Amino acid sequence: MIVLGVESSCDETGLALYDTQQGLRAHALYSQVTMHEEYGGVVPELASRDHIRRTIPLLEQVLAESGVVRSDIDAIAYTQGPGLAGALLVGASVACGMALALDKPVLGVHHLEGHLLSPLLSNNPPAFPFVALLVSGGHTQLMRVDGVGQYALLGETMDDAAGEAFDKSAKLLGLGYPGGPAISRMAEFGDPDVYTLPRPMLHSKNLDFSFSGLKTAVLTVVKNKITNICEQDKANVARAFVDAIVDVLTAKCTAALKQTGLKRLVIAGGVGANKQLREALNAAARKKHFQVFYPEMEFCTDNGAMIAFAGAMRLQVAPDAAKKEYAFNVRPRWPLDELRTV
Fold this sequence. Notes:
Layout: E1 2-7, E2 12-19, E3 23-31, H1 33-37, H2 44-66, E4 75-81, H3 85-102, E5 106-110, H4 111-117, E6 130-135, E7 140-147, E8 150-156, H5 162-172, H6 179-187, H7 212-223, H8 231-260, E9 264-268, H9 275-288, E10 291-293, H10 304-317
Parallel strand pairs: 1-4, 4-5, 6-9, 9-10
Antiparallel strand pairs: 1-2, 2-3, 6-7, 7-8
Helix pairs in contact: 2-3, 4-10, 5-6, 5-7, 5-8, 6-8, 7-8, 8-9
């Protein structure tokens, strides 16, 4: 079975073809980072318009690279939510229009389910069950995953997501957009002993998160500087910020494993590419004797491969999930734990 995946939830346009017999046949991605950098964040209207421009050329690219012709496609999966409404509508309309033209079934996929299952695309995929940390610009959640569509929420952020805190703190330090990679690189040159920032909810008796206070702490440090903050001081603040977030994420992950009794941890989402987080989790895994799995770097951010793969996995457990019904709607807000395999 060959599934075409279409991803357009935010500021990346991704298309991919996944074959349940041969694996990932081809994928193509266009990032809008350069366009949005000028504004310090994603501009929804610009994102939607750019998805319109990019989707069909990327489709042609994956077809050419894979050697697949349109008639070979068995089903089309698209990101139905969550995400920016206008951006989601572009991918949904392209997917459903193409499915109608080809007389193929179509299914909407949850964006976070795509991230959650993306480590299964790697050469060393985890087996079910496992604990998953979904950590990105819009989401920070801990889930117990027993299979495709079998998800239980263990904890989530009460305010800002970790990736959002990265972006906002980077902006305070004048590091530009996107903030995650920039502040991570700057932190490598920082002195860990200059500043100590709070670890919100580190010692709470639950698995929830909170990062808005950490962002405010960065703001306080920056405002207390009488003159412009120098580059070394920026690095020191960045180091303190990254250390605080990594400490919290690592502690919550190990607590979730202890609570569930599981020994496999999956990290998914854009922040999962963070170098310091991976180093801390790998060290914790050695000390606590658990396994940790990451998606390939190219699949950490939004991409079409994870949507094609998630669609294919859904169809393997529920073959009737894709239908020849071409009226569509999108779900900008869609809790992951609402998903079921039925």
